[in-house]
Every structure is written in C-alpha cells, then in structure tokens.
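Archive entry. Fields below.
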Amino acid sequence: MITKSTGYLFELRDTGLALFDENGTLLFSNNIFRRYCRQPSSLLNECFPETVGLEEIIRKIARGHQKTFYIENINRPGKKKDAVYLNLSLHHFASSAAQVVCFVWEVTSEAILKQRFVQKENEISLLKTRLAAKSSEGSALIGHSKKVETLRTTVVQIAQIPNINILLRGESGTGKNLIAREIHTLSSNARKPFIEINCAAIPEHLLESELFGYEKGAFTNAAASKKGLLEEAHEGTLFLDEIAELPLALQAKLLHIIESRRFRRLGSNREQQVEFRLITASNKNLQQLVSEKKFREDLLFRLNVVQIELPPLRSLEEDILLLAEHFMHLFNLRFNKKAEGFTKDARQALLEYSWPGNVRELSNLIERAMIFNNAKYIKKDDLVFQSGTTSDAKTWSVPDGGIKLEEVEQKLLLSALSKTNGNKARAAQLLGLTRDTLRYRLEKYKL
Amino acid sequence: MAVIKKKICLLGSFGVGKTSLIRRFVLNSFEESYLTTIGVNISRKRVSDSNETEYDFLIWDIEGHEKFSQAIQNYYAGSAGAILTADLTRPDSLTHLSSILTRFKTINPEASLVFCATKSDLVDVSAGVQKTYTDWAKDNKLPYFITSAKENNNVEESFIALAGLL
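PREDICTED_STRUCTURE:
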C-alpha cells in the first residue's frame, strides 16, 4: 500500500515516487515526481516520454514477469540553461492488482562530472583524428588527376579484401608508407595494430629478434622474453618498408611465415599462429634483384599478389598545387601562420620543378618557406628548391659567351647518377631516358 | 487521424554528429561547438510519411558508448527504428557502427533502419573514400544518405525515409 506519508518519506530522500497500473495510468505520485514530469499528465508516457515504446516491458513488470527496468542519465533542460540529469527505475509492486512503482531521482552532479571527463577524452580523440587528417597522412591521396583517382579507387577496393599481400612500388618520397597506413585505416582491422618496419633502418643482426621476438635466455642479452613485431601485428597490418634490404636468410623465414602463418620466437620450440595483412614496399626493381640473386623469386611471387604503383610527383601536374596547399594549411596549423596561398610565380615554379624527392621534398619545401615567413602569400623567392633552381628548360637560357652542349649533357648525366647513388635505372628515369640510352651515352662520354 | 508515437534512436560513435542532426531536424539550427552527450536526451517532432501517416517521433540522442552495458541495452529497448550515423571524416566511426548495429539488432530485430554518413561539408564528396560508406550501406541493405547538419543537407530526408519504413 502506497500512501501520502510513504510519498512524503521519499520526498525527504529527494526521490520522486509514483504508482501506475499496467497500462501506465497514474494512481499516485508525490511532489518530487510531479516536479520531474515533462508535462503534467495522468499517463506515464506523457510524464516521462522516455517510456514510449516500453509498454510491453511495463506490462510485464506490473504482472511480475519482469522485476525491474531503469533508464540512466535522462537529460532535462534545467533552469539557467543547465541540464538536469535524472535516473528512473520501474519495479513490480506486489499487490492484488497489476501495478508498477516508479522512482525518479536527480544525479546531476555525478553526470556533470562524467560529462566533463568524457568531453575532454573525446575532444582529445577528435583532435588527434583531425590532426592526422590534416598532416601528411592521406596526402598521397590528394588530387583530381587520373593517376590519383585510380590510386584512390585501388586503395579503397584493396582495403576491403582481408589479409591480402600487397606490394607498393614507387620512387623514394612518393608516400608508400602513407598508402600502407591508408589501406590499414580503411580496412575492417583499422582498430588493430599497424606495425611498420623499415628493413634498411634496423641492423641485420637485430632484425631477426625484432621481427620474431625471443624467449628469455635465447642469447646472451636476452634477460627476459620479448614479443616480436610479427606478434604485435597479429590481426592488424604488418608493413615492411624497403623490403629489398631484407637479408636472404630472413627472406626464407618470411616466406615460411607467409605460407604457413606460423612462426617461432628465437629460442622457442613452440610455433605460434599469426594473422595479418602484409604490405611491403620498395623503390628498387625487385625483378632485377631476383635475376642478380639478391632477392628470392618465390618470396617476390608471394609478396606481389597485388602491386600498386605510386606515381612520381612530377607526373601529377596540377595536383602538385593541391598538395602544396594541403601542406600550407598543415603548417599554418603547426606554426600558427595565416598563409592563404601562393603567388602566380610561385605556382608556376612548383609546376615546373622536377621533384626528384617527390611529396617528401614538397612538404619540406613548404615547411622551409613558411617557418620564417609571415606573408599572406608564399612567393617564388620563398621556395628554395633542392637543386637550387627550377629545372625547367623554359627558364634556362644560353649564356652570352656560349656553351658546349656535350659538356652540359655530361654534367647532367653525372648529376643524375650522383643523385641516385649510381642507380642507372633511376638516373635514366630522372633524365627521361631509357636505360639503354643512358648506357649508350655513358659509354659515349666514357663516364 | 491519430498520431502514432514512435521511439527512434540515433546511433553512432561519439562526435559523429548525432546531436547536430537532431538539432537541425527538430530546431533547424546548428552549433559548431561540440558538447558530449551523457546518457540520453529526448526530442520530439511530428513527421508524416508519403502515405500521410503522422508520427510523433521521440528521438533518442544516445551517448556514443563503446561498451554494451545493461544501461545501453535499456536505451535501445522498445525502439521502432534507428538512424545509424558515421562520420565521413573518420572511417573508424564506420567500424564502430558495425558493432553498434549488431547490438541494436539483438534488442530490436524488427526495427527499421536508415544509414547517414555525416559531415559531408568537411569532405570532398567525389572522393573514393566514400565508396566504403556506400558499400557498408549496401552490405547491410540500408537506405543511405550523405548528410550535413551544418549545410542542412539530407537531414529531413533521412528522418522522412525512416518514417516511410515504419
């Protein structure tokens, strides 16, 4: 039996109390319950519209088929625009009739504390995402040229295929690591680890233990067991950059893992199962390395299930300007600058340069241009190109005293070889020649 | 003709713009600032479908929880429909949405659903990345809208589409 005095007792505990029949019709309520009602009414779903849709549950509770039901942190507009937070609970009321007792109490202080905490947590997450989106991540997919459109479509399609081996090919600085990360981000494993290893950056003797991990005592300095990067990448993505630098012995082990999806830590007899998407990248001609016996053909076959060719920046035409603007916005944020664009001359220079260092070089160039510059527009003079000049033939002219064309050609050949550390294939690419033509000219000048 | 009351949930990860969609639909306004929703905030709006059936939508703006607690199950209970939301600038919000959808369906297997990709004003709508969202909608056989609460793009259409499915 609920009486006025019962209602009053609950008021002393700042709790609203009401009794309803199984159809949600009000039988009794105290003052606090009425104060919290959205509108004065004799129906539960009018007093608390949060109970609309719960008719079946209310009936079950009234008949004792379900004991209780609650709704936490119901927001209500309070005085002075601040929200009031309420908890509501429904319980079976043991009586001869099918009835439901409803309690309502305020939890504003706790909810506001939670709100402040979660707000900060979420803001940090959102800022991280925004910063990542505005940073160089994703810059490999900026643009409207056909090459970028094709690349974008390929990346999206491949990301949907689970655990497929992908080989990224492209000149240094074209953003192979960005594409690898983009594939991971767009895949269903995006929340799983993305493990990146530069095979050229880790000394050969450490690479094996880094990759496979080790058991305590496996070698002299193994004081404790350690997970390898293969294990860390489980269910996510393993990205092996500069795969051409992987020693032959490790190439054999990697092949075994790709085929069996099993590996052993150093010093362990126990095989472990791993699942990951393998993305590899190289700016070298792996097929040539195979013919030189420096890379295993069977491994190349396994890695090369899908090959993505990243276009060099110089081939992206007007997209160069879009990328330059992307980096300008990024460095505006990073350096607190307010640059709005590039002058006509600067835009022309960006389009005419040959970009041997690709997107990485462009990013560095814009960064350098903006560090000490507060002007609204970035001028041509602000752009310090690596080669000291925009290498476009249109800006060149013959000196007044004349010039020997063969000397210029020899200098260009030597410069291209020096830029590519003697890599003739890359040097030929920089000069727009075939390898045979380059070889012919080197022989001609006895270089 | 009697007005039919229906409980509708807005579902999705935190910060995808659920509150903004509701504010645009109910109050025709937009605020740039982000205020995390705690618990549940209910708004009401009358909607007519193409058959001129009039609904009183009780729209539940539910906090973007990652965990499937009893409290969240109770928020979902009794929903006639839901608008699923994912942020076009955050592909991770689509991954979360898959698990949210599975959970919601365990509580309301018969509920009608519509999928909204949000914040189209912040992305290049022609970009290929949106294929992921389209494919997700296709895979889950859901009506799909690219929306912007800021630019009032496809917001009302999404709610009306949902009304048509009820």
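CURATOR_NOTE: The domain at 402-444 of chain A is CATH 1.10.10.60 (Arc Repressor Mutant, subunit A).
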